[in-house]
Design goal:
Layout lengths: L1 H17 L3 E2 L5 H14 L3 H12 L7 H16 L3 E14 L3 E5 L5 E2 L1 E3 L11 E8 L2 H6 L9 E4 L10 H6 L1 H4 L1 H7 L4 E5 L25 E4 L1 H13 L3 E6 L2 E14 L6 E8 L9 H25 L1 E2 L3 E7 L7 H9 L4 E7 L7 E7 L5 H11 L5 E2 L12 H5 L3 E7 L4 H4 L12 H19 L9
Parallel strand pairs: 1-13, 6-7, 7-8, 8-9, 12-14, 12-15, 15-18, 16-17
Antiparallel strand pairs: 2-11, 3-4, 3-10, 5-9, 6-10, 11-14, 16-18
């Protein structure tokens, strides 16, 4: 019994020293994943990557020169980490620049804290002054007669609450995403919304809105929460008029996705992980989504280091994808899915909910893949991660288009309790990151991706 074991050990040593990667042993997958998890928890590259990206490149508005510099940074970093098949895949989009924005309540000395929403239009030269129609929520505005909207500045309120899973953002998101277009269709001169936010700093939260074909973009801005509540009180007390100036500019532009790989031993089976490289321009793009970029790059780097050290390659290719232009409507995610529709992407996951700890793990995979998530759940339990057994997880905005084509979904849910205090604001800066929680993210992604990439069970849903 001893001689074959010695021979296998010598063969493994020979493979490691000659660079001939060997497939990871099925029997040792879980043990290796646990070691990778613990090593990543103790030491990883996420903080160095995140601080370098956000300090040297800074905010990375989609289709801007800064986003292009972010892609240069990404390709350089991926190369230094030893990944191969580094690619940049461009796609066209409309570039939007914010300009300046200001607003005040006529007849008072209240200057409102506002910021323009992405893709919104500009006021006439010199601004516009108009009466305000106030609505408690999107449904109320949608139901209002045209006479209450046409030629007026529409203010749409809502009541977003703090939730661990960020679900209140989805419930109230229509206020920003479709509210301005609905008001424009009724003839509104401009739209003001209560920021999709949970903080009471006078930092309005930006974000994208959308205008369907045939609907001319109108000025649309978000109010900081204290200012939104001021405006709501003034509306309740009587007629209100606001003077508004907003000067964004739109023009043809281009963004791109960046990717790199750790090759697997089975051709054509791919596990995707990543984050989106673009950010809004008000802060430094740390929580949204420099952290996700750094977390997933660091997790892949931990696996790459293991492969280099042991010669033990994963069965499936691990591909890091850094998507562009997520903030303007998942443009990069859609372009990526269309360009790679013919590939066998068996599983995909995105880190895009800040830098705080992962508290649950979910999936959307074929039934044959559920035992894999049992293994992942057991490996992540020591990190304080609980399983979500619904098998209906989303996996991140950029993963959505891949999931629609049948890719399985890996969803590592982050604690979003404080996420909407800083996202899309000037407060999205590096000092908000808790390094221990950042490290926990890397450890979870490292273990989960290693298990998925060394597995052979079918995961695709179609």
């Amino acid at each position: 019994m001893r001689q074959p074991m010695i021979s296998l050990a010598l063969l493994g040593l020979l493979a490691a020293t000659t660079g001939q990667a060997q497939t990871a042993s099925p029997a040792g997958r879980i043990e290796t994943a646990a070691k990778l998890r613990d090593a990543a928890l103790a030491d990883n590259k996420a903080w160095a990557l995140l601080s370098d990206l956000t300090d040297t490149v800074g905010p990375r508005l989609a289709a801007s020169e800064a986003e292009a510099r972010g892609r240069v940074w990404a390709k350089t970093a991926l190369q230094k980490l030893g990944f191969v098949n580094i690619r940049e895949e461009a796609f066209p989009m409309t570039a939007w620049e914010r300009g300046t924005a200001s607003a005040s309540i006529v007849g008072s000395n209240h200057a409102l804290a506002i910021t323009a929403l992405g893709t919104s239009g500009a006021t006439p030269k010199g601004g516009l002054t108009a009466p305000v129609s106030c609505f408690d929520n999107l449904a109320a505005m949608r139901a209002a007669p045209v006479s209450e909207v046409k030629g007026r500045i529409v203010f749409i309120d809502h009541r977003m609450t703090i939730t661990q899973d960020g679900s209140s953002y989805g419930v109230n998101g229509g206020v920003r995403r479709i509210g301005p277009a609905l008001a424009a269709q009724k003839g509104a001169a401009a739209v003001m919304i209560r920021s999709l936010a949970t903080d009471y700093h006078r930092n309005p939260h930006t974000g994208s809105t959308g205008f369907p074909a045939g609907v001319t973009p109108i000025p649309a801005v978000a109010l900081a929460l204290p200012d939104a509540e001021l405006l709501a009180r003034r509306c309740a007390a009587g007629p209100v008029t606001v003077q508004l100036i907003s000067t964004p500019v739109s023009k043809p532009g281009q963004s791109a996705n960046v990717s790199a790989e750790i090759p697997g031993t089975v051709p054509g089976e791919i596990v995707v992980l990543g984050g989106h490289l673009d950010s809004w321009d008000l802060g430094h793009g740390v929580f949204d989504d420099g952290a996700g970029v750094a977390i997933t790059m660091a997790a892949a780097a931990a696996i790459k280091s293991h492969v280099d050290r042991t010669g033990q390659a994963p069965r499936r290719t691990i591909r890091i994808v850094l998507w562009g232009a997520e903030e303007f409507g998942v443009i990069g995610g859609r372009a990526y899915a269309a360009a790679h529709a013919a590939e066998n992407i068996v599983l995909a996951g995105e880190s895009d909910a800040g830098a705080d700890r992962i508290y649950n793990v979910g999936s959307r995979v074929a039934e044959t893949g559920l035992p894999l998530f049992g293994e992942i759940g057991a490996l992540l339990a020591p990190l304080g991660v609980q399983p979500d057994s619904s098998n209906k997880s989303g996996g991140g905005a950029d993963v959505g288009p891949l999931a629609a084509l049948g890719a399985g979904v890996l969803d590592l849910g982050q604690d979003m309790t404080r996420y909407f205090d800083v996202h899309h604001t000037p407060d999205d800066t590096l000092d908000k990151v808790d390094r221990k929680q950042l490290d926990q993210n890397v450890a979870a992604w490292t273990a989960a991706i290693w298990l998925a990439a060394t597995d052979d069970r079918p995961l695709r849903t179609k």
